[in-house]
Amino acid sequence: MSTSAADMDALHTRADAAAQSAYAPYSRLHVGAALRSASGRIYTGCNVENASFSIGGCAERAAIAAAVQAEGQAFRLDAIAVAAFRDDGLALPITPCGACRQALVEFGADAQVGFRQPDGTWLTVSADALLPYRFCFPDR
């Protein structure tokens, strides 16, 4: 499935909205993600922090988990937008973290990934471009 500029704009809007649901009392960084699967369905996620920081969850992986739960092992990622905001609502230029980059390429190395730049505009690149030297098992 090819992702048009209008499709990515719709994902940007959904990611912005998902960020408003984030539970981020520690970092105060509210992140939302909206993805479209290869089947055309949309899934969203937000970050959920915990006082034990290592058990918090990222928005991107929350959206992926929702997609996998709904579509099963056949889920493939077509596109995702990631939006981040401070507590005061200021949009921030945040890219997916390393763990999320690995999860993105697992489900769609060619998937389009959109995120804000420091000037507030959106940049869209392939998941593969975000993590060119990803972990993968060698052929057995």
Provide structural commentary.
With 140 residues, the chain is an alpha+beta fold. The chain has one domain: Cytidine Deaminase, domain 2 (3-Layer(aba) Sandwich). It is 31% helix and 26% strand. The protein has four helices and six strands, in the order αββαββαββα. Strands 1, 2, 3, 4, 5 and 6 form a six-stranded mixed beta sheet that branches. β1 (29-37) and β2 form a beta hairpin. It starts with a helix and ends in a 10-residue tail after the last helix. The relative contact order is 0.17. The mean pLDDT is 95.
Keywords:
Cytidine Deaminase, domain 2, alpha+beta
Largest sheet: 6 strands, mixed
SSE order, as H and E?
Answer: HEEHEEHEEH
Report, as a whole number of angstroms, the end-to-end distance: 31 Å
Poorly predicted regions:
none
Tell me, rounded to a whole number, the average pLDDT: 95
- What's the number of helices? 4
Shape: globular
Count of the separate structural domains: 1
In helices, the fraction of residues equals: 25-40%
What do we call the CATH homologous superfamily?
Cytidine Deaminase, domain 2
Instruction: Tell me the number of strands.
Output: 6
Strand proportion, as a percent range, falls in 25-35%
- CATH architecture title: 3-Layer(aba) Sandwich
- Rg, alpha carbons: 14 Å
